[in-house]
Amino acid sequence: MLINDISTWWWHQIRSLLPEWCRRRLGTKLAAISAELDDNVLHLSYRKQNHTTKLFSYDLTESADSEQFARCRQAILPFLKRLRFQSISLIIRHEAVLERDVTLPLATERHLDTVIDYEMDRLTPFPADAVAKGHEILRRHPETQLLDIRLWVVPKILIARAVDIMAQLGVRPYLLLATDCSMAIPLANRTLATGGMRRIRLAVVIASALCVAASISYGFWAQSVEQHRLAATIETLRPAAMHARTLQQAINEQVLGGGLVARERRRLGDPLAVLAAATRILPDDSYLTDFIMRQGEVIMTGRSPAATALIHALSQDSVFRNPVFIAPVTRVDGQNVSVFSLRATVGR
Where, by residue number, does the polypeptide cross the bilayer (predicted)? Predict the structure, then answer.
C-alpha cells in the first residue's frame, strides 16, 4: 500500500507539471477508472485508448453490506489490476463547483496553496478545511507584480459519501474533475487522504536518511577497500622494488668508482697513455731500462744515441711538461749510445 501511494503521488506530481493539452492527450492513452457522480448515483467506467467500458452504477443510499456492494466490488477487481498507476478520478457536475477568478500579489506564487488556505474565509463562504480546492494560473503581470488565478472550490460534504464508498470498493479517487470544466483537484495529497500523505512523507524521510547513511557508509567502505588493494599491490611489488634498489646502488657505486678513477687519471695522467706517448716520441734506436710514474711525475731511464735531443722531443708533446735530466748523460765506452735519466710532469 505504501509503495502504491508513493508511485501514485509521484505520478500526479509529474502530471501536474505538464501543459493541459498534454495532460488530456496522456489521459486518453493511459488506463483509468472514472466515477461520475449524478445526484446520489455513482457511475463507474473504465477507459483506455479512447475506449470506454461502463462497469456499473451504484446507489449511494445503499448500505455497504448489501449484495449490490459485494457484486460491484467483485466486478471492479479485474480492472484495478490493469492500472499501471492509480489513475482513478471522481467527476462531479459543474454546478457543484464554486469557481472564481482571483488576483493576488505575484510574490505569493511560490506559496500559493498556503496563501489560498489563509484567504479562503475571505474568498469563499467556507473554511479551508471544509472544501476540496484547486487552482490554475491564468496570467502573470510583472509590471504590476500581480498574479491572476482561477480558484475552484468544492464542499467536502458534497463528495464525502462518494469518496467513502469508492474507498471501500478499493477505487479511492486521486483526482476530482468536473463536467464542462478544466478543473482538476488532486485528492491524494489533500485532507481527504492525509493518512496516505503522512505515510508518504514518513517514507520519504526514512528513505532520505537511509540514502545519507548509505552514502557515508559507502565512502568509508570504498576507502577501506582501496587501502587494502593498495597494500596488497605494495606487498606484491616490494621484492621487485628491493631488487631494483640494489641494482641501482650497484650502478651508482660503479659510476662513482669509474668517475673517481677517470678524475684521478686526468689529474695524475693515464699510465697507458703516457707510456704510449713515450714510445711514440723516443727514436727507434732508443730504449728504456726503467719507467717510473708516481703522483703526476714520470721518471724514464734508458739508452739513446742522441740522449740530449730527448728533452726537446718530449717538450713538443702535450702529454709531457717541463722535461729535465735528473742525472748527467754518460757515454758508454765502446758503444755509440749514452745513458740518460730524465723527469717530466704529466696530467693536469
Answer: 200-221
C-alpha cell at 60: 449511494
Strands (E), 200-239: none
- DSSP structure string for 246-271: HHHHHHHHHHHHHHHHHHHHHHH--H
Contact at 8 Å (CB) between 31 and 87? yes
Query: How far is the C-alpha of 172 from the C-alpha of 265, rounded, in Å?
Result: 104
Cα pseudo-dihedral 282, 286, 291, 294, rounded to 10? -30
Would you write out the chain's pLDDT as a tens digit for each of its 348 residues? 455 555 655 666 666 666 655 555 555 456 777 788 888 788 888 877 677 778 778 777 776 666 777 777 777 777 776 665 557 888 888 888 888 998 999 888 888 888 888 888 888 888 888 888 888 888 999 999 999 999 989 898 888 888 888 888 777 888 888 888 778 888 854 443 444 555 666 777 888 888 888 888 888 888 888 999 999 999 988 888 888 888 888 887 777 766 666 777 677 778 888 888 888 888 888 888 898 888 888 899 998 888 888 888 888 888 888 888 888 888 888 788 888 999 998 866
Find the Cα–Cα–Cα–Cα dihedral 257, 263, 267, 273, rounded to 10°: 80
CA distance 176 to 136: 14
CB neighbours of residue 214 within 10 Å: 11
* Segment (H or E) for 314: helix 309-315
Q: Please tell me the pTM assigned to this model.
A: 0.45
Residues of the chain with CATH 3.30.1360.100: 271-345
Cα–Cα distances in angstroms (integers) from residue 217 to residues 28, 222, 341, in the given order: 46, 8, 92
Please state which CATH number belongs to domain 271-345: 3.30.1360.100
